[in-house]
Each structure stands twice: as C-alpha cells, then as structure tokens.
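The following record pairs a protein chain with its ligand, flavin mononucleotide.
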Amino acid sequence: MAVTIGSKTLPLPILQGGMGVGVSLDRLAGAVAACGGMGTISTAACGFQEPDFDRDPREANLRALARQVRRAREMAKGAGLVAVNAMVATTQYADSIRTALRAGVDAVVSGAGLPMDLPAIAAEVPENPAALAPVVSSGRAAGLICKVWDRRYHRVPDFVVLEGPLAGGHLGFSPEEASQAQAGRPKSLNVLLREVREALAPFQEKYRRDIPVFVAGGVRNGGEMARYMKEGAAGAQFATRFIATEECDASEGYKQALLKATSEDVVIVKSPVGLPGRALHSPLIRRVEAGVQPKPERCIRCLAACDPGNAPYCISRALVAAHRGDWENGLFFCGAHVEDVTSMSTVRAQMDQIMEEWRNASV
Ligand SMILES: Cc1cc2nc3c(=O)[nH]c(=O)nc-3n(C[C@H](O)[C@H](O)[C@H](O)COP(=O)(O)O)c2cc1C
C-alpha cells in the first residue's frame, strides 16, 4: 500500500490536490500529511492574508509560503509528506519553488503548463532532494515531459499526477471535452491512465525505476481508487471532498456554498487566462455571462498569460473573494461531483473512509 516517492515513502496512496487561492494551505496539507497521505499547499497567491499583500504581493507570498511549509511539516510529524503545487502559468513560479524547497518541502507538483524547467529550478536548492512531479492530462504530455527531462537533466519524474476532465479548477481539456465530461461522457480516466503508463514505460525501463501515477479528477471514493490501482495507478488524488472539512483553509462560507451545491450548479467557465475551469455558477459568473461584470481596476501580475486590459475579471481577487465566502463576487472552483459532499467532516474521517472503502474493494 505504501508508495515510494523519490527517496521517501508515502504510507497511504492518497494525495490531497493543491487548491488555490487559499483553499489548501498549511492547515489542510498538514492534517492530510499527519494521517499518512500527501498534503499539498497551493502556492497561488498564498500570501493574500499578509498585511503587505496589496503593496508587495511577491514578498508577502514568499514569506507566507516558507512559513506554511514549515508549519505543515511540523503538523505532519513525519507521518506523511508535504508538497506544494506550483502552477507553471504563475509569475512567481520559480521563486515559489525555490522558497518551498528551502523551507524543506517533500515534493513539488507542477501543472497548468508543461513544467519543462522544474528540475533546473530544483537543482538550485541541492540541499533538498525533494520529489518532482508534473500534472498531466494526456499520455502525450507525460511522454514529452519525460523526453525533455531525460535529454536535458538525465532524470525522470518521481511521480505523475494524471488529472482527468472531471477535476476542479483549471483544466487541461477543451471546454467541449470538459462539458461532455460534465454531461456524463468523460474521456475515461482508465483510457488516459493506460496512455500515460504507455508513455512512461520506456523511461521506467531506461532508469530501472517505477514512476507512480496518481489519478485525479472525479475519483469518488476508495472503491474507485482501488479499481484504478488494479489498472496500474499507484493511488489517487482527491480535492473537492477535502473542502468540507474542519481543517480546510477556506472560510465557512466557501464550505457552505459547496455543501449546498448540486451537480446542476457546476459549470465550465473560461477563466481570464483563457483556460477552461470548473466552478459553481455563482453571481460573478452570471454577470460575466451577461456581459455586465465591470473590468478589473488593479492588477497584481499573478499569471503570466493574463491580459488585465481584456480580462473579464481579476482571477486572484475572485478566488480570494471565494476563499472569504463572498458569494456575490467569488469564483468558487470545485470538482464535478460536488453532490457527493453533503456534510462537514474532518480530514481524519475522510482519510479513514477512503482507506476503508479501498480495503473493502481490494479483498
Ligand atoms: C477549489 C479547487 C482549486 C484547485 N486549484 C488547483 C490549483 O491551484 N492547481 C492545480 O494544479 N489544481 C488545482 N485544482 C485541482 C485539484 O488539485 C485536483 O486535481 C482535482 O480537483 C481532483 O478532483 P476532485 O476535486 O474531483 O477530487 C483545484 C481544485 C479545486 C476543487
């Protein structure tokens, strides 16, 4: 059941997916790691609660990130692993990774773009040989990343997160694919898993090591995780179900919005950076659809690809508003199966339930 991740061991085959902005910080990540899973802090605008964030977001984010990584590791007490999720598309990508590595993070997970430079950035902090992992949505992307890492850095990923079209947040699929998935016709994670494992196979052979693949996006329970594990996955990454926990770093308002939602409240949105994303159909999204949302006034340059002059709204501010539970102005990212989240619980209860379902399905 334990999974080897680089030079470390993950006792349980469960990853908690990174959730920005502020949904997965030290409290959630530390609690998951304390239970033997991998808890993930999202680096996206993680310093938004710092007093100087408006004046100097860069400094605020890096200071907060270092503190959050240290705190999560203290909470974990060595039971599980603490990771950061850094999106390639963010302007502070490399700085965030270096900061997290210096603070002692166990793993760096990187998506929203192809993390071709991740090994070079990590090599700048040689004292921390943390595990490095890309988030991919196809076998093609997994193969391309391995090819480039092999050629340039003579290494391969320590693990891979395969995110399918039912995930929350930004998606690596076209709006049509994401909508079809929402309508019950997803490109099956099983098919994607097979493609990714085929793409990884030559590199596993060359480096004589396993590259564990964790499936993510609409994995409903431990029983489904067990089925994917029979198909060759090392485990699964879960995100949405961890929002309705006491330890989740989002506000009570975010948690309540999710608890009230049904699958009919979930829509595919086009985020200001042009990528499709999955979120609740909140008043902000309705105003954008109706063309009546005022354009953003200020910009903190959080995403490299964002053109603030043409963006329909500021994604950082909308995600911070959601974190605070501001239903009118928030962008509430969520996975496709919000209807499964029906009551508040704790991280320990979630982890125990997933593992019990996994055991029942594995006998
Ligand atoms: C609120 C929310 C925010 C997310 N933010 C990020 C993010 O910043 N970076 C990322 O790689 N994935 C992000 N994701 C995707 C998750 O990490 C995860 O892979 C996926 O949602 C798992 O599917 P599930 O929510 O159905 O369990 C987010 C998901 C949610 C629900």
